[in-house]
């Protein structure tokens, strides 16, 4: 599956060089005609043909100078190893925090969860970059898992600084970036170990039935064949904490397909408070029937009053090995990308600074949301101060309480820790340039090698072209991509920031991996029946991005240009009206949420009203989706209610979400709805909060893995859709050992003909190309 809604930011009112002026329809469109080739043109054509071809013995050996020194220090880069070590020691010495080393901490101790850079405020950053000011003071953001509390275990946010550690450094509760005030959220995961034991006790109580139904058990033993887990977030109803859980078969091999193996038996534990002796089970659900107690369920089962079904088992259908007959051409190496003249972009690895063509920018990386880009300049002017993922919501629907109660907020799990090394030649072209990322976990810093790739690529289609009877003009569409992949649980999210030579920036999110499925019984209205006892659980993906555009400065407005039908009487229409269409131009005046209009009959652009171009038009960036976006309503994710939002930039509103918004959903750390408070946004510093996503109804083609192409056009429940039937592409059997002849990679443009006419009447076999028109004449016609 791919989240196809790309954030496409297109430069408006740009000055582009046109290779040739437009001309009327070519003569061959209007009727017969022929343009003779002049002697001068013929001589030029021949001389160009005679120029020696530039050959090379191997691919990509002409490596250009790909290093560059960043003009300014990357103030978003992250903490150094020394800084992290100093901060960790410093906060452990703060008696008020009462920290225990992670390796010794129990469920009743406080421990340090996170140490990372507190990103500088935009006002301080611009003062440094544009105003000649000092580098912003460095501070750290830390998170403490405060479990040394009987009644209120909590996640707590603090700010530590200034850095480096000195007698001026302090630890203070972090409040100003959060709508709640001090960053704190009730920790409903404080007793996960006790909760697992609690659920395994029910597994033991039901072991006779699970053996009878599925020949397996979930009792917390090493030889268990099943697990019990359930909803996220937990239900919080009438002051009680409810966790619906269900039985799943375990995968018995290396394949991570357990989310394809639901078994259809559900429990309703009440886990209110921290004393497991006060916890209880409130019911059992099986095949659409609810039972108040486990005893009631057992009684019905043994009396034969329950219709039972079989298990979803870990077998070949859930594995990604090659299966089925192999296409004879699989053993040949497929087409591949090459970089014949070496790298054409420059990188300051230490500062994570990149230059490509007219673009330059800085890269940052965080634990919660992974990669961000800052200070994006095009042709020497800043166009985007910040762009980056804020949150990813996966909201499920089904007949059962687990799927219908699941709404993952993935920043809780983190995109950063699961951004693993990319597979060269598969995730990225074999010539890609790689960067590493570092994040904090369990009082260690971890570095994932080669998990950010940078590369140029040909789009496979030109960025512009036009042909006529006299000329053809065409430009290759070469783009530059920054890519990372995060495997958050069962899904692999591939995130691209793609830059185009015309100044456009596309943000694309794709997803593959294993679906989280539902048991098939009674689920017909919520998903397709995709395997023997399996239903594809319908769900929505919505990913929120922050886009802080600065168009010729920070003072901008949001323009709405609508396409409207109109009936107009013109001076030339002899008193009659004509049905036509017009543009209605307006501006969004206050902070608000916006849905893209029906039929895409409007465009929205961030423009600078104070700096029109020489034609009086407003320069800016248009924002549009590549396909129909989605939105939905979840209390912990108010940003998902509309396609995009526009707000006034504030240093106190740096993020639309918080990783612990999935904990205390009634008392959010960051409540995005409070960002939108009707302030004026005309010629102000604007931030767009844009959603990308899709509705996903899994089908047989999503087994074993969802494929990246699903949203663009694919089979649905046709055969099994298994891409693993085409697996190796010769990578393991035939390693090509040859020199690539680059002459086939470069087209002799002077061989372009353009048009061939074969005369049919009267037909002369001795001169079939009589009166042929072509842009470049054949030699014998010269």
UniProtKB/TrEMBL annotation:
- Describe how the cofactor binds: Contains 1 topaquinone per subunit.
Source organism of the structure:
Dacryopinax primogenitus (strain DJM 731)
In what way is this protein post-translationally modified? Answer: Topaquinone (TPQ) is generated by copper-dependent autoxidation of a specific tyrosyl residue.
- Give an example GO biological process: amine metabolic process
UniProt keyword annotations, A-Z: Copper, Metal-binding, Oxidoreductase, Signal, TPQ
Region listing for Disordered, in residue ranges: 23-58
Could you identify this protein by its name? Amine oxidase
Q: Name one Pfam family in it.
A: DUF1965
Residues with the modification 2',4',5'-topaquinone, per the entry, are 491
All copies of domain Copper amine oxidase N2-terminal, residue ranges = 86-142
- Record-stated family: Belongs to the copper/topaquinone oxidase family.
Which lineage do the record's taxonomy fields give for this organism? Eukaryota, Fungi, Dikarya, Basidiomycota, Agaricomycotina
